[in-house]
Amino acid sequence: MANDLMLKEVHKNLNSLLVSKMEALPHDLNKTRFLQNCMTVLQDTKGIEKCSAISVARTMLKGGLLGLDFMSKECYAIPYGNSLQFQTDYKGEIKLAKKYSLNPIKDIYAKLVRVGDEFIEEIKDGQQVVSFKPLTFNDDEIIGAFAVCYYQDGSMIYETMSKKDIEKTRKDYSKMPNGTSWTKSSGEMYKKTVLRRLCKNISLDFDSIEQKKAYDDGADAEIKEEKVKPKNILSENEVDNVEYSIVEDNAIDLGDDTPDFLKDDADNG
User: Fold this and answer.
1) Do 117 and 134 meet the contact criterion of CB atoms below 8 Å apart?
2) If you average pLDDT over residues 201-228, what whole number do you get?
3) What gap in Å lies between CA 55 and CA 10, rounded to an integer?
4) Which of 221, 225, 249, 265 is in Cβ range 3.0-4.6 Å of 173 for a Cys bridge?
5) For position 2, what pLDDT does the model report?
6) Which of 229, 239, 230, 94 has its CA nearest to residue 152?
7) Local structure of 166: helix, strand or coil
8) Are 111 and 145 in contact (CB under 8 A)?
9) What is the pLDDT of residue 233?
10) To 10 degrees, what angle do helices 186-199 and 90-100 make?
11) What's this model's pTM, rounded to 2 decimal places?
12) Is 148 strand, coil or helix?
């Protein structure tokens, strides 16, 4: 872990970057809170001592540009060799899609499909329809994942990926195919992968070029070369035929977690 001297340098650099990039930051970003949460997370991040203070600050800035919170695990800063990789989380992907979609989104989420679950794609009255009936408390092997986006106008788009498809994406395009995100949180990464593919068919209108670049950098898998064919868009009536259960992420009360090394400065100042 980094020592207090390095963390103070990161704090100084990140604060300067937040000031210089003020016009590119979301208007609702609490910069003081964001900076505090970044430093709290970095205190417990192993491996950042191998990175330069300015490179760490630049990585953390990407979360600020998108309005994502590292402490709430909407995004991550992951040490990889001598660099710190920025990566959005599944929760962060949901937040960004809802906030920046040109066509207002009512709900968007991804689900894992396991052995024993019933997942069907079929044609009804000339229209493609999907249905999903998971087994209760099913913890069997994952065989795939799908993502669904409901728009406020009643239409819907969806995307599916088999386990084989996701693993191929991981192998061929992931920045860190054997990183902790995949080895310890494979389910979340499966959902994020299919959700990212779905979002390629959602028109996202970011406020600045810096935000768009940070969003692109936050993808684990670089799949710009891959052409994704969108699934059929369902009308408002057809949406009624789709059976899903929606899981809402619980809000996290962060409290007042001022890092110790910053408290020292306050006591002396």
Assistant:
1) yes
2) 80
3) 9
4) 221
5) 64
6) 239
7) helix
8) yes
9) 47
10) 20
11) 0.76
12) strand
The stretches of 21-155 forming alpha helices (DSSP H) are 31-43, 53-66, 90-100
> First vs last Cα of the chain: how many Å apart?
26
d(CA 91, CA 236): 26
Task: Let me know: does 60 contact 14? Beta carbons within 8 Å.
Answer: yes
- Identify the weakest region by mean pLDDT among 90-94, 136-140, 212-216, 236-240: 236-240
Query: Residue with structure tokens 């340098």?
Result: 9
Phi, psi of 257 (to 5 degrees): -110, 65
Let me know: does 129 contact 122? Beta carbons within 8 Å: yes
| DSSP summary character for residue 146 | E
Query: What pLDDT is recorded for position 4?
Result: 85
Flag whether pLDDT at 109 surpasses 60. yes
Q: What is the mean pLDDT of residues 185-212?
A: 94
* Beta bridge partners of residue 101, listed in sequence order: 204
What's the number of CA atoms in the CB half-sphere (13 Å) around residue 71?
Answer: 19
Give me 101's structure tokens.
């979609």
Q: Which of 42-51, 78-87, 170-179, 226-235 has the lowest mean pLDDT?
A: 226-235
Question: Please, are residues 204 and 100 in contact by the beta-carbon 8 Å criterion?
Answer: yes
Residue bearing tokens 């990039």: 21
Residue (of 8, 9, 60, 18) closest to 38 by Cα position: 60
| Contact between residue 42 and residue 2 where contact means Cβ atoms under 8 Å apart | yes
Say how far residue 203 (Cα) sits from the centre of its chain.
17
Closest C-alpha among 99, 104, 112, 72 to residue 88: 72
Hey, where are the domains in the chain?
4-88, 90-239
| pLDDT tens readout for residues 178-189 | 888 898 889 999
